[in-house]
């Protein structure tokens, strides 16, 4: 297929997915669309359904006959509860739901990789097996506190995978630049909910109540101080309070206030310290006559890129673009549930420059999110080159 026709196909896939986004665990039409684009390809087998991949949505596409090495490629397919403001001709048809993190692009790139790898298999040029996971529910946990990656791993569908790779579009750097770092690249993700209880009462007679709003005002400075006062300045750590609710009237002191937020760290040491100090500080509420309940949830672990896989990724992107600029720096304190894979399998995620500076500057999870679609072809070819390099090695030389 000619280069311009191939690029048009990738853009067509991406724009269809962008127009019809679906939230985590609800990606039924997305799953059906993916299957439609790949069924019947040479050397391809398809797994889907809870009994095969652990979830009702999502797809695993296997190219090859099961021979080692077995390489895993992963793209996330879910969207976010955001009302789109791009005014693109292919803007979301579902009000309040948007692909604002590039998952439509990730899916299109992996669809492209499946087609390329299938053609290599047909030409007897694929010396191994590739499992391509179109993964649901990266963005949101379910009622059991799990994301899509955990369900796939628990299903056993990736048990034989020897190395895994993923791409993430980056709207902060342009085409021709990537972020790729061995070791810790993204954060541990923890969330907390604190319910502060008092007795409530009339706003005119605060002395007759134990005011949970007042108690909250005392505890907030302590919460904000935790990263800077309890964690070394050399350790990345963030605590953000993102929601405070309480009260229903201007003259009634409520009986409780709820505070919700998130904590992000790179090391397990900092993660543990923040958690213990959070609990310690909340005890101040009891000395002032109130009470509290704390729910602390440990979400995704830090994303740790395997040095061996990072080296392969680096070689692959340079084969696609010899002039590529590689920034060996951490990707920030965001979280990625691909980290569940890299915790068990040697793997790496690369951030692929895709800033579209012809439009307004934007970033991930914003209503104006967009990206330069030229990144799609670069990403597809990089995934295929990385697979071929790993297969050429005859095995996986990982180990962090």
UniProtKB/TrEMBL annotation:
Co-factor binding details? The Mn(2+) ion enhances activity.
- Origin, by domain of life? Bacteria
Give the keywords, sorted: Manganese, Metal-binding
Q: Which residues form a coiled coil?
A: none
Known InterPro entries for this protein? Answer: Amidohydrolase, Bact_exopeptidase_dim_dom, Peptidase_M20, Peptidase_M20_dimer
GO MF, one term, reads: hydrolase activity
Q: Where is the Peptidase M20 dimerisation domain?
A: 189-284
One Pfam family per UniProt: M20_dimer
- Entry binding sites for Mn(2+): 101, 103, 139, 168, 365
Look up the record and name the cofactor or cofactors this protein needs.
Answer: Mn(2+)
Keyword Lipid biosynthesis listed: no
Q: Does the keyword Metal-binding apply?
A: yes
Protein name (database record): Peptidase M20 dimerisation domain-containing protein
């Amino acid at each position: 297929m000619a280069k311009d026709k191939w690029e048009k196909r990738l853009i067509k896939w991406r724009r269809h997915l962008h127009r019809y986004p679906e939230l985590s665990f609800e990606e039924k039409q997305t799953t059906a669309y993916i299957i439609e684009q790949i069924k019947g390809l040479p050397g391809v087998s398809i797994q889907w359904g809870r009994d095969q991949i652990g979830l009702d949505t999502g797809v695993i596409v296997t190219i090859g006959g099961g021979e080692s090495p077995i390489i895993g490629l992963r793209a996330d397919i879910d969207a976010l509860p955001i009302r789109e403001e791009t005014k693109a001709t292919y803007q979301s048809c579902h009000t309040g739901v948007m692909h604002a993190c590039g998952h439509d692009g990730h899916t299109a790139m992996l669809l492209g990789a499946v087609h390329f790898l299938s053609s290599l298999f047909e030409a007897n040029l694929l010396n191994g097996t590739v499992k391509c996971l179109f993964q649901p529910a990266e963005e949101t946990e379910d009622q059991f506190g799990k994301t899509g990656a955990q369900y796939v791993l628990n299903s056993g569908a990736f048990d034989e995978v020897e190395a895994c790779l993923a791409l993430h579009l980056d709207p902060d750097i342009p085409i021709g630049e990537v972020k790729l770092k061995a070791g810790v690249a993204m954060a541990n993700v923890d969330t907390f909910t604190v319910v502060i209880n008092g007795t409530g009462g009339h706003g005119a007679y605060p002395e007759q109540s134990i005011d949970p709003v007042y108690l909250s005002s005392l505890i907030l400075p302590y919460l904000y101080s935790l990263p800077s006062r309890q964690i070394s300045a050399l350790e990345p750590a963030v605590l953000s309070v993102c929601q405070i609710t309480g009260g229903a009237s201007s003259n009634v002191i409520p009986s409780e206030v709820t505070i919700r937020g998130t904590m992000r760290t790179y090391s397990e040491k900092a993660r543990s310290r923040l958690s213990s100090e959070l609990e310690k500080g909340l005890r101040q509420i009891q000395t002032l006559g109130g009470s509290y309940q704390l729910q602390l949830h440990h979400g995704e672990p830090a994303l740790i890129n395997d040095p061996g896989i990072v080296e392969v990724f680096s070689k692959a992107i340079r084969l696609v673009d010899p002039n590529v600029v590689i920034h060996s720096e951490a990707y920030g304190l965001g979280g990625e549930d691909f980290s569940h894979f890299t915790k068990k399998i040697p793997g790496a995620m690369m951030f692929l420059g895709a800033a579209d500076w012809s439009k307004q500057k934007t970033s991930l999870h914003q209503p104006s999110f967009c990206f330069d679609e030229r990144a799609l072809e670069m990403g597809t070819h990089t995934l295929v080159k990385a697979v071929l390099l790993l297969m050429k090695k005859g095995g996986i030389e990982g180990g962090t």
